[in-house]
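Researcher: Last one for today. Full complex below.
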Amino acid sequence: AQSVTQLDSHVSVSEGTPVLLRCNYSSSYSPSLFWYVQHPNKGLQLLLKYTSAATLVKGINGFEAEFKKSETSFHLTKPSAHMSDAAEYFCVVSAPGLYQKVTFGTGTKLQVIP
Amino acid sequence: GAVVSQHPSRVICKSGTSVKIECRSLDFQATTMFWYRQFPKQSLMLMATSNEGSKATYEQGVEKDKFLINHASLTLSTLTVTSAHPEDSSFYICSAKGDSAEKLFFGSGTQLSVL
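Model: Here's the assembly. Have a good evening.
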């Protein structure tokens, strides 16, 4: 069984300040973890993924996430928010194996204030 | 919150048969639905986008005759894998959004195994 919890449905930051989007997961296995972003009226875009290699994962657009097994967390961070970062962000957990079940979090809407 | 129901959650079929996967929006009108496929240790691959009442728009490399998508109503979209082969075995997931909503809601996915 697996699940993912995004702790904040909305996050609001000022432009130029750090971003933290929280994600906790549970999985019976060693999972793969992903962060996707969805801009208004567009499809999903992969930001970054963790698949049992380095625990600190760097993604596109300056985002990164750290896999912490002891805390079952995979929080997404960015040092300095940009207006173009305003979007919906989804944390996703995927079970290992040939046909991987994917479970999505409920999403966090990031608002960036000028 | 909005709910998207995807059925079946798991299906095993013989090679050469067709399999239909349903995706329903239970409490909102889904004007747009997306179908994705998950490959092992890779990110989701968008297969197609369907708007209610229109033909689906397929991504490059996705065979439209093999993966038939129907979005005949505002609450139901179906993906039919025709003449399934073992290489079609995968995890398929749908998502939906309403006309005025920017947020996507996801189904729980379907694990397809073709023997």
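The interface with chain A takes residues 1, 34, 36, 38, 40-41, 43-44, 46, 49, 89-91, 93, 95, 102-104, 106, 108-109, 111-113 of chain B (CB under 8 Å). The longest strand of chain B covers residues 30-38.
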